[in-house]
TrEMBL record:
Compartment(s) where it occurs, according to its Swiss-Prot or TrEMBL record: Membrane
Protein name: Probable peptidoglycan glycosyltransferase FtsW
The keyword Nucleus appears for this protein: no
Catalytic activity: [GlcNAc-(1->4)-Mur2Ac(oyl-L-Ala-gamma-D-Glu-L-Lys-D-Ala-D-Ala)](n)-di-trans,octa-cis-undecaprenyl diphosphate + beta-D-GlcNAc-(1->4)-Mur2Ac(oyl-L-Ala-gamma-D-Glu-L-Lys-D-Ala-D-Ala)-di-trans,octa-cis-undecaprenyl diphosphate = [GlcNAc-(1->4)-Mur2Ac(oyl-L-Ala-gamma-D-Glu-L-Lys-D-Ala-D-Ala)](n+1)-di-trans,octa-cis-undecaprenyl diphosphate + di-trans,octa-cis-undecaprenyl diphosphate + H(+)
Membrane topology: Multi-pass membrane protein
Length: 395
């Protein structure tokens, strides 16, 4: 080999090494930071909101805080560990998770424990599971895999109805077998949102939106003619239309929540100084926790919390746009739709913009199963982010 040839070989090897060094894996620490901030904010507000009722009910003011804190801490460690695993491995279990989730939804009606008039939880010893929360993650993962496998066939009406049917099945099981309208709406919203991203024709969505609007208007008009109803969902609509006149039908919780929001002002009464949490707002640590945040931290506190959610959604959008393949993009898009829907609907409920539906505020409201599967979604999102590759253009 001549000296010139050796020089060329060394030059090529050096160039290859430089190119290899220029490619690096990404990991979204910004999303990780938003998870930490929202979880910590939620724990502080959960303790402030629930201390009084926990002391009355359990003799321990930190009852809810300790349970949620322990679950959150364990889940966060799991997020750090399992987000290092390639999300394609998790996708292999999408079908199994979807089937298990639907079986649990069906079984809840028969083996579930009734709490506050609804069977939504399955108890295994002292451990409680809410299958509806599992169904959200299962639908996101399964529909993502199904859409990717269909490929170009997704442009056909047959594929559209197949994907819609899979999502509708979980939504229907959630509604009719766990009596959970709020989660059924969220699952339906996730399904429609993911289809909207991949299906080229928009006519079915326009027609569907029109049908939903007609049904909603029809229900409102019908509810206005009633003074009462045996159907608890109609009672909620009646209470929503005139909460002051229908306090016995559910208007009491709405009014107390609005009192809490109104009394907070710009900067609130101060952390821990809420009056409405002293059993005036029933189960304030759950779906009505935002009313106590408004009362104690005011509009300023709600704006800060909203900015945290917006930042989380922005990071999810960034990951979805830069995902290495369609599967990763769809998974993170589904998570984005879920979080956005749940936050918007919770705010709408507590401000009486829509009837009460029992939708919790992600990472803030109390709920063990909820936080576990929210963290599972964040694990998937971070796993997708880890597969993103960037090139360093510096020479």
């Amino acid at each position: 080999m001549t000296a010139v040839s050796k020089k060329k070989v060394r030059s090529i090897a050096k160039s290859a090494g430089t190119a290899a060094r220029q490619v690096f894996h990404y990991y979204d620490y910004n999303l990780l930071a938003s998870i930490i901030l929202l979880t910590c904010f939620g724990l502080v507000m959960l303790y402030s909101t629930s201390a009084y009722s926990a002391q009355i009910d359990f003799g321990d003011g930190m009852y809810y805080f300790k349970r949620q804190g322990a679950i959150s801490a364990v889940c966060f460690v799991m997020v750090l560990i399992f987000s290092q695993i390639d999300y394609h491995i998790y996708a292999k279990f999408a079908g199994l998770l979807y089937v298990v989730a639907n079986i649990l939804l069906f079984a809840t009606k028969f083996i579930g424990t009734e709490i506050y008039g609804a069977k939504r939880w399955i108890y295994i010893g002292s451990l409680s599971i809410q299958p509806a929360e599992i169904a959200k993650l299962a639908v996101i993962l399964f529909l993502s895999v199904l859409i990717v496998r269909m490929g170009k066939k997704m442009r056909t009406p047959k594929a559209f109805w197949m994907v819609l049917g899979c999502g509708a099945l979980s939504s229907a099981l959630t509604l009719f077998f766990t009596d959970n309208l709020s989660t059924a709406i969220i699952i339906a919203g996730i399904t429609v949102g993911m289809l909207f991203i991949v299906y080229p024709r928009k006519r079915p969505f326009v027609i569907g939106a029109g049908i939903v609007a007609v049904v909603v208007v029809g229900v409102i008009i019908y509810a206005q003619t009633l003074s009462g109803s045996e159907n608890f969902r109609l009672r909620r609509v009646i209470a929503w239309l005139d909460p002051e006149a229908n306090s016995s039908l559910g208007g009491y919780q709405i009014m107390q929540g609005l009192y809490a929001i109104g009394s907070g002002g710009i900067f609130g009464k101060g952390l821990g100084n809420s009056l409405q949490k002293l059993d005036f707002v029933p189960e304030a640590q759950n779906d009505m926790i935002l009313t106590i945040i408004c009362e104690e931290l005011g509009i300023f506190g709600v704006v800060v919390l909203s900015m945290l959610f917006v930042f989380m959604l922005y990071r999810l959008l960034f990951i979805a746009q830069n995902a290495p393949d369609l599967l990763g993009s769809l998974i993170v898009s589904g998570i984005f739709i879920h979080i956005a829907l749940q936050v918007v609907l919770n705010i709408a409920v507590v401000t009486n913009a829509i009837p009460t539906t029992g939708i919790t505020l992600p990472f803030v409201s109390y709920g063990g199963t909820s936080i576990v599967f929210l963290m599972a979604e964040m694990t998937l999102a971070l796993s997708v982010s880890r597969q993103i590759k960037f090139r360093d253009n510096e020479k």
